[in-house]
Amino acid sequence: MESVSAGYGATDIVRTVSLQAKPGRITTIAGPNGAGKSTLMKTMAGLLRPRQGTIRIGARDITALPPPARAAAGLGYVPQERNVFKNLTVEENLSIGFEFIHRKAARGAFAAARQRVLDLFPDLVPRTEAPAGTLSGGQRQMLAMGCALIAGPSTLLLDEPSAGLSPRYVTTMLDAVAAVNRTGVTVIMIEQNLIEAMRISHDALLLAGGEIKGMWSAAAFLSDAKVKSLFLGGTKAGGELLQQDTSDDASAA
Ligand SMILES: Nc1ncnc2c1ncn2[C@@H]1O[C@H](COP(=O)(O)OP(=O)(O)OP(=O)(O)O)[C@@H](O)[C@H]1O
Ligand SMILES: [Mg+2]
């Protein structure tokens, strides 16, 4: 992204944001609630048209492309909310995720892609005929990611994949993100579970007040004084985010 400003109506939420996610790596976007992280990612996915600036995948300028064309160009997107069709089964959700991109795929291509997703998320295997609305929060997040993955994206945008999950599921989900990345998929992810996120990330960006405040290696991010003061503001609640705490409350935060 180069000098991208975007928002809702006349108000810019993200302002002159320039950032680069390197191919083959996991880049995590961190920042306080309301910082504009989801707005930024919606702009990457094409759901919001930037008021100014340029968005590229590799050398290709995708700024003018609508969301379906970006998906066809290899951009997968898992939104923070409402990311599955609750009244459809797990199987039907996966099928839609596949057919949306591969309308004329050879027979057998769906079965192979479906198997790759179920291998990654075995929790879904006994539930393929269940309506997505009956899944647990963790299972729903797995399905949402599965629906994006089944199309075979080259870049995956994930808006808080571990939000609301118990500590065990947070680890399972982020391990799955790392596994997907190891297959060569570039990942851009928004996360609040920063310790777990940095465990699998390569690079980290800080967004606050709609502006990029810096970029760090994942290893250096959490100990950086600027990150602590800008993102956490020195508050007690913020400080707890940096503790190695595996209670449910901490992961919900
Ligand atoms: N559809 C919308 N219409 C108008 N304003 C919106 C809309 N969605 C978000 N906003 C506003 O944009 C700002 C940034 O919201 P955004 O969802 O991008 O933040 P975020 O960093 O993802 O927060 P969180 O960590 O809580 O998910 C907030 O002030 C929010 O009220
Ligand atoms: Mg958000």
Quick structural overview:
With 253 residues, the protein is an alpha/beta fold. Helices cover 38% and strands 21% of the residues.
Ligand identities: adenosine-5'-triphosphate, magnesium ion
Spatial shape: globular
Averaged pLDDT, please?
Answer: 89
Give the domain tally.
Answer: 1
Give the CA-CA distance, first to last residue: 29 Å
Tell me which CATH architecture applies here.
3-Layer(aba) Sandwich
Q: Radius of gyration in whole Å, from Cα?
A: 18 Å
Find the count of extended strands (DSSP E, 2+ residues): 11
* Most strands sheet: 6 strands, mixed
Quaternary arrangement of the chains shown? single chain
Strand order in the sheet with the most strands? 7-8-9-3-10-11
Strand residue percentage: 15-25%
- Could you say what the CATH topology is called? Rossmann fold
Classified by CATH, the class is Alpha Beta
The fourth-level CATH homologous superfamily is P-loop containing nucleotide triphosphate hydrolases
**What is the share of helical residues?**
25-40%
